[in-house]
Design goal:
mainly alpha, Growth Hormone, Chain: A, two-stranded antiparallel sheet, 18 helices, 2 strands, about 75% helix
């Protein structure tokens, strides 16, 4: 069943009168029976387009990893830090470190806000435009079956029957959500069943940081304060994101064979055990124990691998699948802002925990992450 763009250009969203339920069921069945390889093959252009857009995040990872790594960088410490005779070395103060980290995190959040400002500005400027261009100019999807069909045809290799079935599936999903009173404003994110969805999305994103990411994801400064040689510390710091890359790729296999809840709960449980073990080693051994130092460093790298296998990637899957279709963008904004708030909080406390002239917890900082996970 196809859709005539002219019939629906100025009407309300789809109604039961023209929702093709049979087509929607066909699309659901086809997706359920489709293998991962078949899905990639049929949607290769959509996959490549998604990969291209996602590369913008590379620079966010660069910024948020680079600045904290400067904490222990010898030349940076000497230029911007203070000399402490009792430790015979330079250190950036706790407030200095907290401000540096939060400056990077706040800028990333500012970029999100800029994008939202542009979107809302365009919408406000076109609010009095009563033609179809009033909603076509701001975004690529306008509810039109014909335009939707053309867009899908450019992104997939499916035939016309499969395209129409997919469109019917999209319309049917929106209609189901309409029946359970799913609105489209931020207020609706906190009403009825959507409140539960919002809670899941926000807490899932926050758990990424609460699981010890601020401590273990950029471990070079921790390695240095634990007594590791500078060169060895930064060599291990290079291996950390390499393990993150490997873990993320392997997570595709986990997503194929295990449920989201299983991966999420299994991941945070394992991370908590690793962090608790790091803390215990630090609390029960002397500061000059090389074996204990390398044991803590190894566990940090294992933490990185487990995080990238489970909690790291699965959070994005859970958030995209949990939120209602018409509230997805707003749910992601709320979840991401929850993550940013948690990150700012963690970035303030963590430098004080590790800094030798502040709280000087060293590896015992891991206890904080283990406690937060539970």
């Amino acid at each position: 069943m196809g859709y005539d763009d002219s019939k629906h250009a100025h009407h309300e969203p789809p109604s039961e009168k023209w929702v093709d339920t049979a087509g929607a069921q066909t699309a659901f069945t086809a997706e359920r029976d489709e293998t991962f390889a078949d899905s990639i093959k049929k949607n290769k252009r959509a996959v490549l387009w998604s990969l291209m857009l996602s590369t913008a995040i590379i620079m966010e990872g660069y910024d948020t990893s680079l600045l904290p790594s400067f904490y222990g960088y010898p030349s940076f410490q000497k230029h911007y830090g203070d000399y402490y005779p009792d430790i015979d070395g330079y250190q950036l103060s706790g407030p200095w470190q907290a401000g540096l980290s939060n400056g990077a995190n706040v800028y990333c959040n500012l970029c999100w806000a800029i994008g939202q400002l542009i979107a809302n500005g365009i919408l406000q400027g076109l609010v009095t435009n009563t033609t179809k261009w009033g909603y076509r100019i701001p975004g690529p999807f306008n509810g039109s079956g014909l335009l939707c069909q053309k867009t899908l045809a450019r992104l997939t290799d499916s035939d016309s029957d499969r395209l129409n079935a997919t469109i019917s599936q999209m319309v049917h999903t929106i209609e189901i959500e309409r029946e359970i009173e799913s609105g489209s404003s931020y207020w609706h994110c906190f009403k009825g069943i959507d409140l539960r969805r919002t809670e899941i999305c926000c807490l899932t994103f926050a758990t990424q940081m609460l699981s010890g990411a601020q401590f273990a994801y950029g471990p070079s400064y921790f390695f240095l304060q634990a007594g590791m040689d500078t060169e060895d510390a930064y060599k291990l710091a290079v291996g950390s994101p390499a393990l993150a890359f490997l873990g993320t790729v392997l997570s595709w296999l986990l997503l194929t064979y295990f449920g989201r809840r299983t991966i999420f709960l299994g991941g945070i449980s394992t991370l908590a055990i690793l962090l608790f073990t790091i803390g215990m080693i630090s609390a029960t051994t002397s500061a000059n124990n090389d074996s204990a130092l390398w044991a803590q460093a190894s566990l940090c790298l294992i933490w990185q691998l487990v995080y990238s296998l489970t909690l790291g990637p699965i959070a994005y899957v859970i958030i995209s699948e949990t939120s209602a279709v018409r509230l997805r963008a707003k749910s992601v904004v709320l979840a991401r802002n929850t993550y940013n708030i948690t990150t700012v909080w963690a970035a303030v406390l963590e430098p004080y925990m590790i800094h030798p002239k502040e709280w000087d917890w060293k590896g015992k900082t891991a206890f904080s992450g283990a406690e937060q996970v539970y």
